[in-house]
Amino acid sequence: MPWPCSRPVKHRFVTLLATLCITAAFSACALAQSAILEGERFHPEVGEHGMVATSHYLASQIAHDVLADGGNAVDAAVTAGFALAVTQPRSGNIGGGGFMLISDEKSGKVIAIDYREKAPSKAYETMFQDEDGNAVPELSRYTHNASGVPGTVAGLALALDKYGTLSLAEALAPAIKLADEGFVIPPRFAEGIRDARERLEKWDSTRKVFFKPDGSLYRAGERFRQPDLAATLKRIAEHGPREFYEGETAKLIVAEMHKHDALMSAEDLASYQPTIREPVHGTYRGYDVYAMSPPSSGGAHIVQMLNILEGYDIGAMGFNSARTIHVMSEAMKRAYADRAEYLGDTDFIDVPLEGITSKAYADELRSQIDLDRATPSSEIAAGNPLPYESNETTHFSIADDSGLAVSNTYTINFSYGSGIVVDGAGFLLNNEMDDFSAKPGTPNAYGLIGGEANKIEPEKRMLSSMTPTIVKKDGKNFLITGSPGGSRIITTTLQVVMNVIDHGMNIQSAVSAPRIHDQWLPDEIRIEDGISPDTVALLEAMGHKVSRQEAMGAAQSILIGDDGTFTGGADPRRSTSSAMGL
């Protein structure tokens, strides 16, 4: 049975809208004034009946309208997911896959939908190696065989069917309109095409979508239409999700694969199914933390790191002080060392989740940490870190006033995936096969080494770092968060949780604050701008190598107060990010 709508459908009378706008404005002003008096520098969006936070303002507006019309959070999430596939094709997708967490306060249940891509049935361990057994990176990244069987359409449709109230056609309607009529290109969209030009120009089918007929680039402010994608979405709306896997769209995918001698077959598409799993569950300072289970490594390791850090008075140590960053780094190193050794698709290997997420194991790991000295990675463990997604993953969070909350992260891996558009269907193929270990001991696109647990096997799901997360307080939804950012997804999400619980930040401050990251190998702490040189000097004196690099993640997040007030934080690291309350 579907979960109920958040409230009855509203009539859109002008007077009612005016009243709502005035009320919301006064509420927002009152909260903002309170925040100013308390010395806050960042102010979240405010809502009384719900909140959406996505990486694109058009998707946020569409999801907001679904909630305003009486739809629930799952309706809004699925509608936003399809809208992002149109407005943000570099990462939003129907040609990729991901994970969704859904929390329902009324039933007390939190469920995890795994719609990660799968390897084709003819995939084999050495398929990206040459005759001498050397890994050939280009094969797993920029060819048709780089694509896993897509899961997004099946996953979003499953969520809507089981927990939503809209029909699939209703959820697809805004995306179809955007693809048909087009939308005005923002600067980030134009810059993305320009930066990926060389890769996108390689394929005729891709040029037809992302370049003008004369071969020139689209510019910010111009209108971008996608008629082939609109036709694909219309077919799915008319015939249901299996159209993508068995209908005309499936035929177009198979024809694209056959034309380039790729392994994915009609049988692979027809047999694809998403899976409902139990999320990983842990506790942190009295809060219940739910996050994605394998084949994501995110849930296991965010709980593991929180368990380690729970033994320190993080609040008293201070936000981003040298001592706080030091213990965070030490916890991160140990979690990522375990990730390399143990994590993979639980349909193929045994993952010791209970042990990794236990408080006793965290106590053991914490006992190894010296508060005055960095532990060299070589002293922690010997093993091989696993591949991870690029920055171009997309996360969104949505909550309504019926007690329903959704945290969703999905991707096509690299920015624009493989760069290959399915001819006639209008969408990009993922290159998630690069998230497998092409060969144990050989670095992937990001310089990380592959491990045996994540080797290529037929119909196996590749390991992921995606970490959609929902934190509950006294049984009620409290924090809905997650992020893109490759291996930095887990640590970004960790820091949003810590910023709220340990440092008492509002949600906008929590997502805007400078971040750090340590993934065991390479043996360094990566930091964003905003960490002071004095702090860096103290860390280096402890033995840490510190590397100042570009911004990490884009944590679109929601916080729900004890009084039921919703606040949304849109991450400023993405210029199109948007939070909207109602």
Summarize the structure.
38% of the residues lie in helices and 15% in strands. It is built from 22 helices and 19 strands. The strands form 4 sheets. The chain has a 7-stranded antiparallel sheet with strand order 1-18-17-13-12-9-8.
Topology overview:
Layout: H1 14-37, E1 45-47, E2 50-54, H2 57-68, H3 73-87, E3 97-104, E4 109-115, H4 137-141, H5 152-163, H6 168-181, E5 183-184, H7 187-195, H8 197-200, H9 204-210, E6 223-224, H10 227-239, H11 242-246, H12 248-259, H13 266-271, E7 275-277, E8 280-284, E9 287-291, H14 298-309, H15 314-317, H16 322-342, H17 353-356, H18 359-366, H19 377-380, E10 394-400, E11 404-411, E12 469-473, E13 476-481, H20 488-501, H21 507-512, E14 516-517, E15 525-527, H22 533-541, E16 546-548, E17 557-560, E18 566-569, E19 578-581
Parallel strand pairs: 15-16
Antiparallel strand pairs: 1-18, 2-10, 2-19, 3-4, 3-11, 4-7, 5-6, 8-9, 9-12, 10-11, 12-13, 13-17, 14-15, 17-18
Helix pairs in contact: 2-3, 3-5, 3-6, 6-10, 14-16, 14-18, 14-20, 16-22
Q: Could you explain the architecture of this structure?
A:
This protein is an alpha+beta fold. It has a domain at 14-182 and 225-276 and 391-454. The strands form four sheets. Strands 1-18-17-13-12-9-8 form a seven-stranded antiparallel β-sheet. A seven-stranded antiparallel β-sheet has the order 7-4-3-11-10-2-19, covered by helices on one side. Helix 2 runs antiparallel to helix 3 (73-87), helix 3 runs parallel beside helix 6 (168-181) and helix 6 (168-181) runs antiparallel to helix 10 (227-239).
